[in-house]
UniProtKB/TrEMBL annotation:
PROSITE patterns: PROKAR_LIPOPROTEIN (PS51257)
Domain of life the protein comes from: Bacteria
Protein name (record): ABC transporter substrate-binding protein
Gene3D superfamilies in the cross-refs: Dipeptide-binding Protein, Domain 3 (3.10.105.10), Periplasmic binding protein-like II (3.40.190.10)
Length: 507
């Protein structure tokens, strides 16, 4: 090799090293052409107002930023709003926006835009934010940067509430055509959409105007519908997938293939939902019998491969709202369950049920079926075809099932999560509109308590206890985030409430 050639090669190598060092140091710009392919779920709607499930926050937050966001410990921190302040009575909270915010369509993101979003969430016919915003009586734009939510009663949960879909502000210009917005997001988040094919994929580019753009190191982002779980590991090996949620039983296979498997706490809690509106659960003795029917540790061992934890409430152990006293209320006792069923008039084999399950979770239904058989209950399994809208319609809108296997991935606000699973209009309350007055009163007490007040945690725990006791639904186990990823993907940002992409790098 000539001296000139060696100098050229040396310069190229030096340039590569400098580039890698800059990326490793987490500089303000992303690595040139860095790309991530995420196999997950597409949202039920790209419009936060009509998005229908809690799981959507993971994908909605690609295109949208919320007023606040949660950190790894679940605490509220600034996002679009750099600060917030309550009035003395706790009946109004003013959010102060950052300067210079814009939506991806060029519309200014100011206080009037935020007001327009919340007004639409309260009034649009097909809004799924109405329940969350029910306590907001009025929204005022006090200046270009200050927007105030006026409340019917004191509610110190609002900063939590607006850390998710409820505070994921969409462009008022784009919202003039809600149907288009539902398939083409226009927000102020870390990425801007460039292509969307329903039930297949959505492609994004980095949004240079995102307020936290210096912490986004990905230039191109491909979101696709997750393939059959059996092919996930092969997909990551081949490079067609960089990042995916992995079934627990495949974690060993992924590790053996040399892939990175990350296990992180999540807010997910899985249940056996029971319908008080359907026989035989209109009989309190049958409801009580089912309290003792389920071996929770068996679910952890079989479904999560030992990576999860048992829970008798809609929160995982270690989370602020998890009340340890609840775990002592009902132990696994199949003999006692069988005795209670006999007292209710059902001897061995005399009670038969239908278990409703999603097609992707039939293993849970089969385990429920085997454990019910041990207490003398016969059952069949009805599988609902894939699709979150199908499941919502069949289970929680029509309320057809006697019993269903389901779960919650949690909400940013623990009060909102309790309302979702136990509230009279709760999107996951199979026994709706059943909700005891004691439960709603306990929730009101939590809302009226500032987060820094020493009474906040005891009141929250009391609300959880009342909610669990007044509902027939049995929570069984919590499963963590289990992520398989390309080893080149570094600094994963997996929070209990959602997956985020700030700080993630591609080496």
């Amino acid at each position: 090799m000539s001296k000139k050639s060696r100098r050229i090669v040396g310069a190229v190598i030096l340039g590569v090293i400098v580039g890698l060092v800059a990326t490793a140091c987490g500089g303000g710009s992303s690595s040139d052409g860095a790309e991530v392919k995420w196999a997950f779920n597409l949202p039920t709607s790209w419009d936060p107002v009509t998005s229908r499930t809690g799981n959507d926050i993971n994908t909605i937050s690609l295109a949208y930023a919320s007023l606040t966001r949660l950190d790894a410990e679940g605490n509220v921190e600034p996002s679009l709003a750099e600060s917030w302040k309550y009035n003395a009575e706790g009946t109004a909270v003013t959010f102060t926006l950052r300067d210079g915010l814009t939506f991806s369509d060029g519309t200014i993101l100011d206080a009037p835009a935020v007001k327009a979003f919340f007004d639409r969430g309260k009034t649009q016919d097909d809004s799924f934010l109405r329940d969350q915003l029910a306590g907001v009586t009025e929204v005022t734009a006090d200046s270009a940067t200050d927007v105030t939510l006026h409340l019917a009663d004191a509610d110190y949960q609002i900063p939590y509430l607006v850390a998710g879909r409820t505070g994921a502000i969409a462009s008022p210009t784009a919202a003039a055509d809600p149907q288009k917005l539902s398939v083409w997001p226009v927000g102020a988040g870390p990425f801007t959409i460039t292509d969307f094919v329903a039930e297949d994929h959505a492609y994004f580019e980095k949004n240079p105007n995102y307020w936290d753009a210096e912490n986004i190191h990905i230039d191109h982002f491909e979101l696709s519908v997750a393939p059959d779980p059996a092919t996930l590991v092969a997909g990551v090996q081949s490079g067609s997938i960089d990042f995916a949620t992995l079934p627990a039983l495949q974690s060993k296979e992924a590790e053996a293939a040399g892939l990175d498997v990350t296990v992180k706490p999540s807010l997910a809690a899985n249940d056996v939902s029971i319908n008080l509106n359907k026989a035989p659960f209109d009989n309190p003795k049958v409801v009580e019998a089912f309290r003792y029917a389920f071996d929770r540790q068996a679910f952890v061992d079989v479904i999560t491969n030992g990576l999860g934890s048992t829970t008798s409430q809609p929160f995982p152990s270690g989370y602020l709202a998890f009340n340890p006293e609840i775990e002592k209320l009902w132990n696994y006792d199949p003999d006692k369950a069988a005795r209670l069923l006999t007292e209710a008039g059902f001897g061995p084999g005399q009670l038969s049920l239908e278990i409703t399950a999603q097609s992707a979770a039939t293993n849970r239904a089969e385990l429920v079926q085997s454990q019910l058989k041990k207490i003398g209950v016969e059952s069949t399994i009805k599988v609902v075809p894939p699709g979150s809208s199908t499941w919502q319609s069949e289970v929680y809108i029509a309320k057809n099932p006697q019993l269903a296997t389901d779960g919650t991935i949690g909400r940013e606000s623990p009060v909102q999560n309790l309302l979702a699973v136990y509230g009279p209009e709760g999107i996951m309350n199979l026994s709706g509109p059943h909700a005891s007055p004691e439960f709603t009163a306990a929730l009101d007490a939590v809302r009226r308590t500032p987060l820094e007040d020493p009474e906040y945690k005891p009141r929250l725990w009391q609300a959880v206890k009342v909610g669990v006791e007044q509902s027939p639904t049995n929570y069984i186990f919590s499963n963590p985030w289990i992520i398989v990823s390309n080893p080149d993907l570094k600094n994963l940002n997996i929070l209990p409430s959602q997956v985020r992409w700030e700080g993630v790098t591609v080496s």
